[in-house]
Input
Amino acid sequence: LSRYSGKTDIAVGSPVAGRHYPDVEKMIGLFVNTLVLRTEIDSSLSFTDNLKSVRATCLEAYEHQDLPFEQLLETLNVERDTSRTPLFQVMYDMSVDDGSTDLEFKDCSIEVLPWQAHTAKFEISLNINQTADQLECLFNYNTDLFNSEAIERLALDFQELLIDVSQAADAP
Output
């Protein structure tokens, strides 16, 4: 993102499921909060060192995940603009699909239907679903800002980064 935008101060939104308290684990409803992951990219550092910085940012943000996004906006006194999100324009969401389903209802069947977004809520969003043997990546983007060729280039670059990270993780 830094290379594409030419900026070193990068803020990315990431949803976090607010189900880490046993009292709400079995409750029905949406318990999602949005974390703002803000990182300063240092071009003098290696990709791996910058990645370590991003990891530290994520871990610190997870420690404060209970702070409601709306309260964060109020505390920072952010001026709202209905045409865009206030603290980030890129959303990153990763989920793990273990192949099981926790939902079972008597006399009821469940069918998973494909979902396709028709309206971009952010400039770019990347949804990754990790299955046992692959990562499924879905880019959604604002077509007023990006064309399909630009997103395809971004996706290919992202794929190269994943390969680099995977190879670095396998190295001794």
About this structure: The helical segments are 2-5, 47-63, 69-76, 148-170. DSSP finds four helices and five strands in the chain. Residues 148-170 form the longest helix (23 residues). The first strand starts at residue 9 and ends at 17.
